[in-house]
Design brief:
about 325 residues, alpha/beta, Metallo-beta-lactamase, Chain A, seven-stranded mixed beta sheet, 10 helices, 14 strands, globular
Length: about 325
């Protein structure tokens, strides 16, 4: 039986489950209704199957591009950003000029990663211990992902942390939630204890917390600090970017913190066995035998974030000018 990708969550909020061409095979985006039109929170990636689901959804809800009021992005990873330009053009073709909102840091990330020249990950992967041929294959897969963010939308309007933003008929507070992406924002309706949680907290899977060439230092440290701060937030229901709805907010946060403590122990164990490069550590802590090129890129970044956290905490050392780590 095919599952309807469109699901009504609240009287004015729909969750749309969009397909992805990756091992993580879907992303949740949200449509929020108001008398003046619809807000779209996150967009999916631009490929044929994603566009088809959007078109079916417009038909099911009896709306068109003219009914889109604005687009809000929690962050600019391709599965959340990739269809922003396509949706913007759909609204414009229907005679409605709309704004797209994101944090200033995510706007900069979009400029650096998607709107400029494609970043070359080949040398970065090799520097982190990946064999040369494998690094070339992994880097090449990034070109396919880049193509699925086109066409790019115009520059964003900025949302700052702690701003109040109107989504549908509700007022949400923007909360900075770094770790998965430097400038990620999540949105809290304090009155209804409802949270649009992006990729910050997910059920059953853990968000990728990666250290990349162009990201802020110590993302895992930022992530864990953010989780501890947010664990006290009053949340009746959180609407995440992947997997199922979150009904036990503080309980799930406790599980995520425990997961990363365990992962840090595994990294220390790997270094104790003289697995001293990020690639070698990744092979130790992940089941990499069936990893796609896309998954390998994230495995390296996630491993680096844990190594960096341990280095900042003075639990390991890094050789000068080399990506070699030691206990």
């Amino acid at each position: 039986m095919n599952r309807n990708p469109l699901r009504k969550i609240e009287d004015d909020i729909y969750q749309l489950r969009l397909p992805l061409p990756f091992a993580l095979n879907h992303v949740n985006v949200y449509l929020i209704q108001a008398a003046t039109g619809w807000t779209i929170l996150d967009c999916g990636i631009n490929w044929e199957k994603g566009r088809a689901v959007w078109q079916e959804t417009f038909s099911e809800l009896n709306i068109s591009g003219a009914d889109i009021e604005k687009i809000v992005l929690t962050h600019v990873h391709p599965d959340h950003f990739g269809l922003a330009g396509w949706l913007y053009n759909a609204a414009k073709a229907a005679g409605r000029e709309i704004d797209i909102y994101a944090s200033p840091r995510e706007d900069q990330q979009a400029q650096d990663v998607w709107r400029g020249e494609r970043l070359d990950f080949n040398l970065w992967l090799q520097d982190n211990g990946m064999p040369d041929e494998m690094a070339g294959n992994v880097d090449g897969s990034m070109g396919d992902t880049f193509a699925m963010t086109l066409p790019h939308p115009p520059p964003f309007k900025h949302i700052q942390p702690d701003d109040t933003i109107r989504l549908g008929e509700r007022d949400f507070t923007a909360i900075h939630a770094p770790g998965h992406s430097d400038g990620q924002l999540i949105f809290h309706d304090e009155d209804e204890k409802l949270l649009l949680s992006g990729d910050h907290v997910l059920m059953k899977i853990t968000p990728n917390i990666g250290l990349w060439e162009n990201t802020d230092p110590n993302p895992l440290g930022q992530y864990m600090q953010s989780l501890r701060q947010l664990s006290e937030l009053e949340v009746r229901l959180a609407l995440p970017g992947h997997r199922s709805l979150i009904e036990d907010w503080s309980g799930r946060i406790a599980e995520l913190l425990l997961h990363h403590e365990h992962r840090l122990d595994l990294v220390m164990e790997a270094l104790g066995k003289r697995r001293n490069t990020p690639y070698a550590v990744a092979n130790y802590i992940f089941e990499t035998e069936r990893f796609s090129a896309h998954e390998w890129r994230f495995a390296i970044a996630e491993t680096l974030s844990h190594l960096e956290y341990l280095r900042v905490e003075h639990k390991i050392k890094q050789d000068d000018d080399f990506q070699i780590f030691r206990v």
